Amino acid sequence: MVNQVLAHIGNTPFELIAYAADKGILTEAYSPIAHGALLGHDAVSAIAERYGVSVPQLSIRYTLELGLLPLPKTANPAHMKDNAGVDFAISDADMATLRAQRVNDYGEANMFPVYGGKL
Ligand SMILES: NC(=O)c1ccc[n+]([C@@H]2O[C@H](COP(=O)([O-])OP(=O)(O)OC[C@H]3O[C@@H](n4cnc5c(N)ncnc54)[C@H](OP(=O)(O)O)[C@@H]3O)[C@@H](O)[C@H]2O)c1
């Protein structure tokens, strides 16, 4: 069984993920790049730069490190290729830093219930 939820750096429902894992339910992370909101995030960009990867690659890898199934979206073939390059590991220290980030501004997408905290 799979449960699809909003999960990305800065907005990860850790308790729900742990509950689902305990029940044998796979959590699928939609908007793993925060619907694009992570692209200009300073702390995330700095960590991505250290690993020599893009912010989308780091964001997708973060969800994999948490045992999630990422569901990124792109309309750009070059981005799609980039997003598949996630064969690297994020250190425990950097995962702790990423887990502590907070993102709650999705720009124009704030109007949608899924991002506006109404779902
Ligand atoms: N169940 C639900 O309620 C629900 C809600 C929302 C979404 N979803 C699902 O989740 C999927 C993903 O949602 P999302 O669109 O919010 O996803 P996302 O993957 O978090 O963000 C997509 C945005 O990131 C950009 N992007 C992706 N890869 C990039 C790269 N390598 N470099 C630069 N920019 C990049 C895309 O632009 P480009 O196209 O220019 O690359 C797009 O603007 C959707 O297809 C949808 O099916 C489900």
Keywords, please?
5 helices, binds NADP nicotinamide-adenine-dinucleotide phosphate, alpha/beta, 119 residues, three-stranded parallel β-sheet
How much helix is in the residues? 25-40%
- Which structural category do the helix and sheet elements fall into? alpha/beta
CA-CA gap between termini: 21 Å
Number of strands: 3
Estimated radius of gyration? 14 Å
Which cofactors or ions or other ligands sit in this model? NADP nicotinamide-adenine-dinucleotide phosphate
Supply the number of structural domains. 1
One letter per element, helices H and strands E, the order comes to: EHEHHEHH
What does this structure look like?
The structure is a single chain. With 119 residues, the protein is α/β, with parallel strands linked by helices. It has one domain. Helices cover 38% and strands 11% of the residues. The chain is built from five helices and three strands. The chain has a three-stranded parallel sheet with strand order 1-2-3. The longest helix has 11 residues, at 55-65. The chain starts with a strand and ends in a 20-residue tail after the last helix. The model has no long low-confidence stretch (mean pLDDT 96). Bound molecules: NADP nicotinamide-adenine-dinucleotide phosphate (NAP). Residues 4, 30-36, 39, 54, 56, 71-76, 79, 82-83, 114 line the site of NADP nicotinamide-adenine-dinucleotide phosphate.
